[in-house]
Design goal:
The chain has 414 residues and is α/β, with parallel strands linked by helices. It folds into 2 domains: 215 residues, Rossmann fold, CATH 3.40.50; 125 residues, Rossmann fold (3-Layer(aba) Sandwich). Helix content is 34%, strand content 22%. The chain has 13 helices and 19 strands. The strands form 4 sheets. It has a 7-stranded mixed β-sheet with strand order 8-7-6-9-10-13-12. It has a 6-stranded mixed β-sheet with strand order 16-15-14-17-18-19. A hairpin with a 5-residue loop joins strand 18 and strand 19. The radius of gyration is 21 Å and the shape is globular. The termini are far apart.
Length: 414
């Protein structure tokens, strides 16, 4: 199994974790699809570049992930909306954004973030490749979006038309980009000389240390450390000036970036950067044995979850799922879990209800089914939203129901 590194273009052959064949994670299926259309599977394996240490999936030809029927709408998580609202208020204050400023979000989805800048009177623009969620942003919040993939060409078009951004935000987008160099160079072009870029991305260190292997899927091309992201930024004359650790998406980094050498009066965060750099070095993200132990832990997770579900079935207990995130499809397909062990899962998004998880064909229902069927256990599939979901389903304790999570290790609670 070989691929070319998405950053340095070196040939990459070192397989970290092979998850076998998997369907596209957000390609939910209708009843007719399940009955008549064959499921297509693609190789899914994590590799690491021996030269620049970028961790990435194998390079396979898959259908476009971001299309007119994209199923992920950011606004269905209340905790994520609060995260966005707090960030917008802070950036508006700290960067002194006003009606004369320009905020651009790359991967703006359904307007979950830009709505808060717009409400404060700050001009906003979204760049979103999926037409259906871009339309939702306009219909619900009046947010205008350019329906395109962001890259060097898109940035040149915007800059030529007079757009210069005081703030560019890219939340959980960097991992989704097949051509990293074209993507990052676009930020350099679009950013005002005194502007700020903020990237948020899941931290590779947390993925490895907490066995978050279900976040590996075809839509995520890269798995990022601070060291590698800084290397990519430097290649395009950009530099990080501060970093923060977040708990979102199982542990993320929020990286503040500016033009290299920009003389901008702004809070400096060299200590925060040095702390993350030191943590990554101490953990050993460039050491092969770390990834070998990670693969072994993934196998143990699979065994533990299967053992629990099989024993529950044998004991006459009912286990239902909560959530239909992309990560669930990696977990369930890798473990071979179908409706015989998990009769259905529920999700708040009407765009997923009435459909089926790809590969395993587990139906997706409305959350009220949980309270109608009163299961013994609810398997929380979006474990990163565990607290929010447990609060929503607190009523299951009335019949002795308990919660289960599989990541980072099997846990039964409630």
């Amino acid at each position: 199994m070989t691929t070319r590194c998405r950053f340095c273009r070196e040939e990459v052959t070192d397989v970290v974790l092979d998850l076998g064949l998997s369907p596209i994670s957000n390609e939910f299926r209708g009843r007719a699809d399940v009955a008549q259309r064959p499921q297509v599977y693609y190789p899914l394996a994590m590799l690491i570049c021996g030269k620049c240490h970028l961790t990435q999936i194998c390079d396979v030809a898959t259908p476009p992930h971001f299309n007119a029927n994209y199923a992920y709408f950011s606004s269905y998580s209340q905790s994520w909306l609060q995260h966005a609202k707090d960030f917008a208020a802070r950036m508006t204050r700290e960067l002194r954004l006003s009606a004369q400023s320009q905020v651009v979000e790359i991967g703006s989805n359904d307007g979950y973030l830009l709505q808060y800048f717009a409400a404060a009177g700050v001009p906003v623009l979204g760049v979103e490749p999926s037409a259906n969620v871009a339309e939702a942003a306009f219909q619900q919040h009046g947010i205008k979006s350019i329906v395109k993939f962001f890259d060097r060409t898109t940035a040149l078009e915007l800059a030529t038309a007079g757009t210069k951004a005081d703030l560019i935000v890219a939340n959980n987008v960097l991992a989704h980009v097949p051509d990293l160099n074209s993507f990052i160079s676009g930020f350099k072009i679009l950013l005002d000389p005194a502007g700020t870029i903020v990237f948020e991305f899941p931290h590779l260190l947390r993925l490895i240390s907490e066995c978050q292997f279900d976040t590996i899927y075809h839509e995520h091309y890269s798995y990022l450390s601070l060291a590698v992201v800084e290397r990519m930024l430097q290649a395009h004359a950009l530099e990080a000036y501060a970093v923060e650790q977040l708990e979102t998406h199982g542990g993320s980094l929020r990286l503040f970036v500016r033009h290299e050498g920009a003389a901008v009066a702004r809070a400096q965060g060299e200590e925060s950067l040095n702390a993350i750099r030191a943590a990554e070095t101490a953990f050993g993200l460039d050491r092969r044995d770390i990834y070998r132990r990670f693969a072994e832990e993934v196998h143990r997770t699979k065994f533990s979850l299967l053992s629990f579900l099989i024993e529950a079935k044998r004991g006459g207990k009912t286990v239902l799922g909560y959530g239909a995130p992309a990560k669930a499809n990696t977990l369930l397909n890798y473990c071979g879990i179908g409706p015989e062990l998990l009769a259905y899962t529920v999700d708040r998004s009407p765009y997923k209800q009435g459909r089926y998880l790809p590969g395993v064909n587990i139906p997706i229902e409305h959350p009220h089914r949980i309270f109608a069927d009163r299961p013994d256990y609810v398997l929380v599939l979006p474990w990163n939203l565990r607290q929010e979901i447990v609060a929503q389903l607190a009523g299951i304790s009335a019949w002795g129901g308990k919660f289960v999570t599989a990541i980072p290790r099997l846990e039964v609670f409630g």
